[in-house]
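Hey, resending since the last one bounced:
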Amino acid sequence: MRRIVLSSAAFLISCAHLFSAEVEVGKKSPTPRPQQTQSPKPQQQAQSPKPQQQATPSPRATSAPQTTPVEESPRYRPALLRTGPNSVVDRIDTQDLIARGQKDGSVMFCCSVGPTGQIADTWTYRGTPESLLLEQELVRRLDETVFVPAIYNREPVYVLFYGTVTFKIVNGKPRLRIFANQEAEELKKESDFVGPQPFVGRASKFEGLHYPDDVLRVPISGLVELAIKLDADGNLKEDLRVVSEEPPLVGFRRAALEDFRVAKFIPAFRDGKPVECSITLPVYYEPKDD
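The structure tokens again:
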């Protein structure tokens, strides 16, 4: 697993007419009857022709050049995993996982996603027992993928994408799902819910995660849970609150509060629309590579 490094870079038939001519032949012509002569009507005097007005050619109308309307970027858009035949879900080899002994399991992950959708770093954590094979396959496929990039105020930005992959065997067949959130209730309901994403950009003072190596003498990983309330524009509605810290009292609590107290977020999305939310955000810290 690699460590995040984020910069403050601001990111759509002929119809053939069947003409049938029906000709009737072989009938006798009827016997002609004598025609009555009518008195000739007096001919009307022909009108003198009016002089023709010379048509003045009208100037050709010049059509204005047609321009293709430019589609405006949305105000907000979270980073999203792409769909289709090359999506992460479709590339994970579920049959191979079964053959290698993977049982029901889930893994949470976080990706730093750049303005072009490229992944800079990936972390995995909170895997259920016996989920190592699923975790390894997920990381391998994420390394090959490109996200739909996030947008804030119509500009592409760097974000942290929080997701969860679940794997179950139902009636002997694999069932794989990837969700763009880490909320227990949302995962249980399999909701169309995309969790908020902290971003780096001109409108945010968030600068990424900072491992507390100034106080830690031994390199260890840590996980802090932050209770966060956000409005539909991604602004913090109240102060952050630490729910848990693992391991405790070694500096991760302080690091998480300092990293996120000035952060702004791409707001949460439910059924495709930005919404207010109250979430518990897992913040994972990993020591630097030597």
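The CA atoms of residues 100 and 133 lie 8 Å apart.

Sorry for the duplicate.
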